[in-house]
Amino acid sequence: MRHIGAFSTQPVFNVASIRQIEKALFSFEGNSFTVMERAAQALFKHIVTKWPDAQHFVILAGAGNNGGDGLLLAVLLKQAGLQVLVLDCAHSPRSGDALRAFEAAQRAKVNVELFSIEQVCSAAVVVDGVLGIGARLPLREDLQCVVHWINQTKHKGAAVVAIDLPTGVDADTGYAQQCVEADLTISMVQLKIGNLLGRGGIAAGQLINDSLGSQSIMAEMSLAGGQLHWLDVRQFVKQKPCPRYLDSHKGSYGHVAVVGGDHGYGGAALMASEAASKTGAGTVALLTRWEHVTASLVRNPNVMAFDAQQEQVLSLGIRNHCVLVLGPGLGRARWGQQLFTQMMALSLPTVLDADGLFWLSQDSEVELPIGSVITPHLGEAARLLGWQIEQVNRSPIKAALLLARRYRCVVVLKGVTTLVVNERGDVYMAGKSEPVLSKGGSGDVLSGMLGATLAYYKDTLEAALMAVSWHNYAAGEMAVHKGVHCGQPYDVLDYLD
Ligand SMILES: NC(=O)C1=CN([C@@H]2O[C@H](COP(=O)(O)OP(=O)(O)OC[C@H]3O[C@@H](n4cnc5c(N)ncnc54)[C@H](O)[C@@H]3O)[C@@H](O)[C@H]2O)[C@@H](O)CC1
Ligand SMILES: Nc1ncnc2c1ncn2[C@@H]1O[C@H](COP(=O)(O)OP(=O)(O)O)[C@@H](O)[C@H]1O
Ligand SMILES: [K+]
C-alpha cells in the first residue's frame, strides 16, 4: 500500500517481480505445491461465492502451472459434489507442480478429455487455466483455437473465469491481439500490469486479487518494478476534487487561465474553461479568439472571457500564481504558435494538452515550467517520442516514463486505463472503461479539470490523480443517468458534486 494524500493504492508488478515474490513465498511455505493448493482453494471460494447455483463447470488446463491451478480447482469442485470436466490443452509434457496437479486430478477421478474445437459445452462456468504469466505471445495456433472456443462459449451464455489473467494477454504490458474475454479474473499473488492496462484491463472483467499469503513476506523485499500502483477510482473520489472549506473566498481556490480556441475550435476552449470552473477553481479566465467571447459569456458568465490578441489581456486574464491550461482548440496555425510561445515564456505551471502538445513536439528547445502536466493520448505521445502509435500501445509505461523524464513533468497518458507518471518514475494506473468518454471533447474537459486541481493542490501528482479519477468516475455516473450515446463530454461536470 502507498498513500497519496488521504488515499491508499495497491501495488502492481511486472512478471520478473511476481516470480521473485513467488519464490520467496515458496521458500516461506516450504514448498510450491502448497501454494498451488492454496491458489485452488482461493479460486474455489471466489467462484462459488459469485455463482452459488452453478452445477456444471468446464476447466481448460494448459501444460504449465496455470493449468495446475485449474486441475486442483477441478478436484475441489468434484469433491463438493459438482459436475466438472477438464479439457486438456497441453501440447507439451507436464512437469513439477503441474504434473503433480494432473496426478491429483486423476486420483480424484476427475473427468479429463483432450480439448477439441468440436466440444459442445453446456457448463454454467468455464474456467481459463490455459496460460498465465508464463505465456509468450503470439499464441500458438492450437491455443488460438482454445481462446476462440472459450469466447464462443461465453457468447452462448456461459460465464468465463480467468485464472491469474486471461489467456492471450501479455502480463507485462496488457497488450493482446486475441485473448479470452473473462467475466471474472482471479489474479494470484499480486496484481500484474496485464491485469489492468490496455486490452488486458478490459478482458479481465471483474478483477479480484488473492495474495495467497504473500502480503506478509513482501515488506522486506526490494522489487524491480515496485513503483507501479493501481488506484481505485471509487476510493479517490471519496474526497471532492477541490474540497471547499467554510472560511474560504474565491482567492482560496486559485485562478485558472485557459488559452485556446482558434477558428472552428472554440468549443474545446469553452469546455475546458467550464470544466475548470465546475471543478472548483476560484476564478477562471478564457483567452481565445474574440469571435468566441460572446458564446462563452452566454454559456458561462462566471468565466472571464478575453480576446487573446488584446495587449492588456496578459495583465487581466493571467495573474500571479495562476495555472495555465494551454492547448484546447489552440490550432496549428500562426495564432496558436504565437500564443504557445508567449505562454511558455511566463513560466507558470501549465497543463499542456491537444495542440499545445503539437507545438511542444515542434520545438526541441522548450523547457516546461516547474509543476507542469502534459496530457497526451497515444497518438500525441507517439508524436512527442517519434514512435509509431502501435509502439506506444505495446509499451505505454515505458512511453510515459520517457516523456516524464524528458519534459520533467507529470505525464497523464490517456486511454481506457490512464497512466499518471512523474519524473521520479512513480507510475499510477487509474480508471475503468467508460465508452461514453470516447467522444471529441472529453480530453478538453479533463484538461480544464486538471487546471482546477493543479491550482488547488500543492502536489502536482495528487492534482493529476484527483482530476483523472473524478473524470472517469463522473463519466460512469453520467452514462447511467444520460446514456452512453446522449451523454456529452461536458455533462460529466454535472456529476462532480
Ligand atoms: N505453485 C505454483 O507453481 C503456483 C503457480 N501459480 C500459477 O502459475 C502460473 C505460472 O505458471 P507457469 O510459469 O508454468 O506458466 P503458464 O502456466 O502460464 O504457462 C507456461 C507453459 O505454457 C507454454 N507456453 C507459453 N507461451 C505459449 C504460447 N504462446 N503458445 C503455446 N504454449 C505456450 C510454455 O511452454 C509452458 O509450458 C501463474 O500464472 C499462476 O496461475 C500461482 O497460482 C501461484 C502458485
Ligand atoms: N472507453 C474509454 N474508457 C475510459 N476513458 C476513456 C475512454 N475513451 C476515452 N476516454 C478518456 O476520454 C479522454 C479523451 O481525451 P482525448 O482523446 O484527448 O479527446 P479530445 O481531444 O477529443 O478531447 C481521456 O481522458 C481518455 O482517458
Ligand atoms: K489463464
Automatic annotation (TrEMBL):
Q: Where does K(+) bind?
A: 66, 128, 167
KW Ion transport (keyword) present: no
Q: Which residues bind (6S)-NADPHX?
A: 65-69, 132-138, 164, 268, 329, 377, 444
- List keywords of the entry alphabetically: ATP-binding, Isomerase, Lyase, Metal-binding, Multifunctional enzyme, NAD, NADP, Nucleotide-binding, Potassium
Query: Is Translocase among the key words of this record?
Result: no
One GO term of the biological process aspect: nicotinamide nucleotide metabolic process
* Segments forming domain YjeF N-terminal: 18-220
Sites where the protein binds AMP: 414-418, 443
Reactions mediated catalytically = (6R)-NADPHX = (6S)-NADPHX; (6S)-NADPHX + ADP = AMP + phosphate + NADPH + H(+); (6R)-NADHX = (6S)-NADHX; (6S)-NADHX + ADP = AMP + phosphate + NADH + H(+)
Q: Which PROSITE patterns match?
A: YJEF_C_2, YJEF_C_3, YJEF_N
**Domain of life, per lineage:** Bacteria
The record's comment on cofactor binding reads: Binds 1 potassium ion per subunit.
Tell me the cofactors it needs: Mg(2+); K(+)
> What's a single GO MF annotation on this record?
ADP-dependent NAD(P)H-hydrate dehydratase activity
Which InterPro entries does the entry mention?
Answer: Carbohydrate_kinase_pred_CS (IPR017953), CARKD (IPR000631), Nnr (IPR030677), Ribokinase-like (IPR029056), YjeF_N_dom (IPR004443), YjeF_N_dom_sf (IPR036652)
**Record's Gene3D superfamilies?**
3.40.1190.20, YjeF N-terminal domain
EC number annotated for this UniProt entry: 4.2.1.136, 5.1.99.6
Q: Where is the YjeF C-terminal domain?
A: 233-497
As for what it does, the entry says: Catalyzes the epimerization of the S- and R-forms of NAD(P)HX, a damaged form of NAD(P)H that is a result of enzymatic or heat-dependent hydration. This is a prerequisite for the S-specific NAD(P)H-hydrate dehydratase to allow the repair of both epimers of NAD(P)HX.
**What quaternary structure, including any partners, is listed in this protein's UniProt entry?**
Homotetramer.
Q: Which family does it belong to?
A: Belongs to the NnrE/AIBP family.
Q: What is this protein called?
A: Bifunctional NAD(P)H-hydrate repair enzyme
Organism, per UniProt? Marinomonas pollencensis
What's the gene? nnrE
